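Exercise 7b. Backbone tokens:
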């Protein structure tokens, strides 16, 4: 028979009182971070089933959500609804643990200035929207001694926990849907700024094309400025020189998709009758667009939940932290921008 450890047994093994164990396992205050983690580890080793609901909670803990716009081509007003979803999920999960949540914005400041500001900030942990950051930018944060978790990006060799969407899987789903709808000439509209998510989406696109034995034709790969206005200008230049188009484009963001549809229409090219489009992000406007956009919906709620989960463990643990990259699959939302051949 499977016997769960009693509080008195955990207390004896951990060398603490039963009341201290009870406070810890019920997420109550009055127990130091170090002792709390010791009790949790002892309980788990004795067979206690420690789930997400038992994670560290403390009304004296403050965490800060940082939105860092390095250049503003991705993190800007047009993506505010997307970023708000992240923040809302972080606040919801933090409230379960009685954490206080603060918010800061850094717009196009040198990394040295950002790091100096963080060093002076008195909070217990940071969740950083790292969309526009690269691997070298993350190196600066090694100077910050407060626990840090990044969302909306990841780097395999980073020293930090990163929670991101599964860009490879999402790109594969987009190409697979095109393929299942009969498309064989599939192009890619990608952002010309080197961010991790864009790189992984292109990699996923190319892997999916290989999987379905479809040739990647470089003439159908278009690199554009990722802003609404910039991508529109770049797509217009491309269309003025190229009339040989694929039957479908996978766009790396909904913003690029909007520009693509509008610009194609200005050249008397119909979506989806002539060219089909799949976007990425599922911004609120995507369901209202004409035609309503088929796109990848990011699991922002789960990414936010996981970020608070990881950060709470970092705050509770005094040492022995193992860095994790967590990738959350997206969901393809099918609307009317893809033609069935």
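Sequence design result:
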């Amino acid at each position: 028979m499977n016997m769960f450890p009693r509080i008195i047994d955990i207390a004896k093994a951990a060398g603490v009182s039963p009341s201290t164990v009870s406070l810890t396992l019920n997420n109550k205050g009055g127990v130091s971070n170090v002792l709390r983690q010791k009790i949790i580890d002892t309980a788990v080793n004795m067979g206690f089933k420690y789930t997400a609901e038992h994670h560290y909670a403390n009304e004296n803990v403050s965490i800060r959500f940082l939105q860092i716009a390095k250049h503003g081509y991705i993190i800007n007003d047009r993506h505010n609804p997307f970023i708000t979803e992240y923040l809302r999920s972080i606040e919801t999960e933090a409230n379960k643990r009685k954490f206080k949540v603060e918010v800061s914005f850094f717009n196009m400041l040198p990394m040295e200035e950002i790091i100096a500001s963080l060093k002076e900030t008195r909070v217990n942990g940071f969740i950083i929207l790292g969309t526009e950051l690269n691997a070298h930018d993350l190196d600066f944060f090694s100077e910050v001694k407060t626990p840090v978790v990044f969302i909306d990006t990841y780097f395999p060799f980073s020293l930090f926990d990163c929670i991101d969407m599964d860009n490879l899987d999402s790109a594969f789903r987009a190409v697979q849907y095109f393929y299942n709808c009969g498309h064989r000439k599939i192009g890619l509209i990608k952002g010309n700024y080197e961010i991790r998510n864009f790189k992984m989406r292109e990699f996923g696109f190319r892997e999916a094309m290989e999987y379905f034995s479809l040739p990647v034709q470089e003439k159908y790969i278009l690199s554009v400025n990722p802003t609404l206005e910039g991508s529109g200008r770049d797509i217009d230049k491309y269309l003025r020189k190229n009339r040989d188009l694929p039957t479908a484009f996978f766009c790396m963001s909904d913003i690029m998709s909007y520009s693509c549809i509008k610009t194609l229409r200005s050249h008397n090219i119909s979506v989806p009758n002539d060219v089909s489009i799949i976007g990425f992000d599922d911004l609120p406007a995507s369901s209202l667009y004409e035609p309503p956009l088929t796109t990848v919906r990011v699991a922002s709620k789960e990414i936010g939940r996981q970020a608070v989960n990881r950060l709470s463990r970092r705050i509770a643990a005094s040492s022995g932290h193992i860095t994790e990259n967590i990738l959350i699959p997206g969901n393809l939302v099918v609307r009317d921008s893809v033609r069935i051949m």
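Instructor comment: The chain is about 40% helix and 20% strand. The radius of gyration is 23 Å.
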